[in-house]
Amino acid sequence: xxxxxxxxxxxxxxxxxxxxxxxxxxxxxxxxxxxxxxxxxxxxxxxxxxxxxxxxxxxxxxxxxxxxxxxxxxxxxxxxxxxxxxxxxxxxxxxxxxxxxxxxxxxxxxxxxxxxxxxxxxxxxxxxxxxxxxxxxxxxxxxxxxxxxxxxxxxxxxxxxxxxxxxxxxxxxxxxxxxxxxxxxxxxxxxxxxxxxxxxxxxxxxxxxxxxxxxxxxxxxxxxxxxxxxxxxxxxxxxxxxxxxxxxxxxxxxxxxxxxxxxxxxxxxxxxxxxxxxxxxxxxxxxxxxxxxxxxxxxxxxxxxxxxxxxxxxxxxxxxxxxxxxxxxxxxxxxxxxxxxxxxxxxxxxxxxxxxxxxxxxxxxxxxxx
Amino acid sequence: xxxxxxxxxxxxxxxxxxxxxxxxxxxxxxxxxxxxxxxxxxxxxxxxxxxxxxxxxxxxxxxxxxxxxxxxxxxxxxxxxxxxxxxxxxxxxxxxxxxxxxxxxxxxxxxxxxxxxxxxxxxxxxxxxxxxxxxxxxxxxxxxxxxxxxxxxxxxxxxxxxxxxxxxxxxxxxxxxxxxxxxxxxxxxxxxxxxxxxxxxxxxxxxxxxxxxxxxxxxxxxxxxxxxxxxxxxxxxxxxxxxxxxxxxxxxxxxxxxxxxxxxxxxxxxxxxxxxxxxxxxxxxxxxxxxxxxxxxxxxxxxxxxxxxxxxxxxxxxxxxxxxxxxxxxxxxxxxxxxxxxxxxxxxxxxxxxxxxxxxxxxxxxxxxx
Lengths: 370, 370
Description:
The structure is a homodimer. By secondary structure, chain A is α+β, with helices and mostly antiparallel strands. Chain A is built from ten helices and 19 strands. In chain A, the strands form five sheets. An eight-stranded mixed sheet of chain A has the order 1-2-6-3-7-18-8-17, sandwiched between helices.
């Protein structure tokens, strides 16, 4: 059954249809086929598919080009597909309702509907956003067809409760491995317990007071956390290795080298004065992005969203692909339906108000047609 | 090829033959078959097999009965089977050389040779000593045929460098699970990081000053260690659970309830004044055993071993099956060839001096025949 994209169709119908096509990261082929098919039916769009990512562009020769992007994948399903409506009929419930099938629905509906926008538009739908950065479909487009991502301003439809959220925090992950010496646990003093060596690091993490950083008028809250710890090989062995995985979420204003240096300094400080053998391996790194609200197009967009009664722009705390546009020199913001704190929630907790979808649809349409 | 058990055969030949039959815990059938076959060939022995455990008894109607026991299994092989001799020809190298194929070789050779001992002897060879207590072959005999373990004194051939080591430390293991609250790591302040909650416990373990306890004239060194730590489910999630597995080695003189109470008090003290949700699950418990050197038979045995030039009796630190005999009301000591600190060592590090084997053979034979 084709996706319900005909103009005038309630956008929650399209949201539910998109939820009902399971599309956990790595398994986006079916949903990409449907989205591609809907876009190719539009004569006003020039469509390119790269793997399970699709780029659809108007080519009206306008002075400005806007990129509007959203990802097709979700985190694993947890008893929340197929979709349903809340009892009061005001919310769509299901995996991806928030992150970010509702945002994709708004974008896809507008891509089909807006055949004569006042600005040229590049619509981007992509795969593998919820997994390691190296698999990202948007990253694939950047590498293989950067020409498709030329533009003056970008909007990423990640959930923001239909409020503009500027920029995003960056994220780093590293594995800190502490090296001890194995021994039989009946003669522990012959060894050096690597799990015990993790104590200073966990104590420092526990005591860490995360900064709140103001950038371009928006406040970004940071975070430094152990997200994994593993050590020990048997119940009667003093372990020689223990690995703590640390995730650092850092505000725009620091670049990746600066953020890494801060983590290394933090680890070194935790072990200051102690002769503890350790190594640090970086396993993931994604830059932060500035809000970008100083661009002229962004100011127009802020006005259009303000007209829907939405709150003033605020900082985006989670890392999003806004950072990729920042790296391309394109100002970008997050703007989409759904409460980001309900993203990835299990069962019927992931739910998106239909009012958010309508608000986003109204603001984007107004901005792109007047 | 049958085991080389004929009287007069150098005991290192039998040690090497036993090493060359791989017998990692759970895989002892082949070695048990060979041992059983050698014992059944002796008309002076009454042989019973229970699973992969074998009991062989003289029934001469003597006033006293001695139990001499050893386990057939080893920890996993690490490039150290088949066996070989050291370059100088004085040591046997290979998995189990220390723990405890050399001890088994001495016992098996004597079981075959001593057809007219001055005390009745119960020889016990059993499986699954190197794994959780519930699988122990000796435990199986205790449960199914306790009549086979009636005796006045027991010697366990665990490695002691051919010195009598009295009693043994007890061992407890528990899993301490700390409960936090999951959250996306971009909004860490919405959760409670369970890995960070482990910091006070690891700090306390790191600072723990293990006691040395004197019991019946021997000094037992204790130990309290994390042997495993595990927490974290994904690189962008604040974990809600973190589990630290603690191993407590405690001196004889405390029973299991007392030792458990000490661990619980230690954990409680680590979290004193902090409202940290946690639970403690006991996963392994084995009692300590007193030295047992006050029994009359033990005094004779101490004299026989002293005549070989061995050091005076000392405390056994690792937990051994001596504790099982203690629970049956039978005084017991450890006495066997090999340096216990080389037990479980990899490659050619696990090695046993032939001189130890000869010394044990001499002392046991003297004690059992005069």
